[in-house]
Amino acid sequence: MEESTREILEGFSEREGALIPLLQRVQSKLGYISPEAIAAISEVLGLSKSEIYGVATFYAEFRLAKPGCHQIKVCMGTSCYLRGARDLLEHVSRRLAVKPGHTRGDGKFSLETVACLGCCSRSPVMAVDGVTYGDLSPDKADEILANLESEASEIP
């Protein structure tokens, strides 16, 4: 068991109803749920890895792949969708060369869709590293992405 996972699970003695809280704790600390973490949780709770994967893949909140340095979420809620979110998503995907639901090969960008960011009056909307941008067009998105790309080029 890797050290960071061991520290996260340390002192966790409850077994019944513990799986989801443990998955949340691991993801909160690591940013995702690694295969090593699943093996460690399996050991601690006495559950099979497939049971843990089953729960982790059932809930949309859990990530099984390491997220990129910059996380981009495009809202696909009804208001955003009707006001051009699909085109926005396609544009961002092409611009960053990453498919929705994936992390770019260099690890710098993750792109995902979300059901709602709660900013319907500003649709279409995307969140970048937790900051929400609204009333977006592909050109406005390009300005935001250009800043990210220049920052990302400085990351080793």
* CATH topology (level 3) name of the largest domain: Glutaredoxin
Question: What is the gyration radius calculated from CA atoms?
Answer: 18 Å
The CATH level-2 architecture of the largest domain is identified as 3-Layer(aba) Sandwich
User: Based on the structure, what is the oligomeric state of the protein chains?
Assistant: single chain
Strand order of the largest sheet: 2-3-1-4-5
What's the helix-strand series? HHHHEHHEEEEH
Helix percentage range: 40-55%
CATH superfamily of the largest domain: Glutaredoxin
* Average of pLDDT: 88
Shape: elongated
Q: pLDDT below 50 for ≥5 consecutive residues: which ranges?
A: none
CATH class identity of the largest domain: Alpha Beta
Distance between the ends: 27 Å
Number of domains: 2
What can be said about the biggest beta sheet? 5 strands, mixed
Total helical elements = 7
**Structural class estimated from helices and strands:** alpha+beta
Descriptive tags:
156 residues; alpha+beta; 46% helix
Model description:
The protein is an alpha+beta fold. The chain folds into 2 domains: 3-58, no CATH class; 70-152, Glutaredoxin. It contains 7 helices and 5 strands. A 5-stranded mixed β-sheet has the order 2-3-1-4-5, with helices on one face. Strand 2 and strand 3 (109-114) form a beta hairpin. Helix 1 crosses helix 2 (19-30), helix 2 runs antiparallel to helix 3 and helix 6 runs parallel beside helix 7 (138-152). The protein is elongated and about 50 Å long. The relative contact order is 0.13. The model has no long low-confidence stretch (mean pLDDT 88).
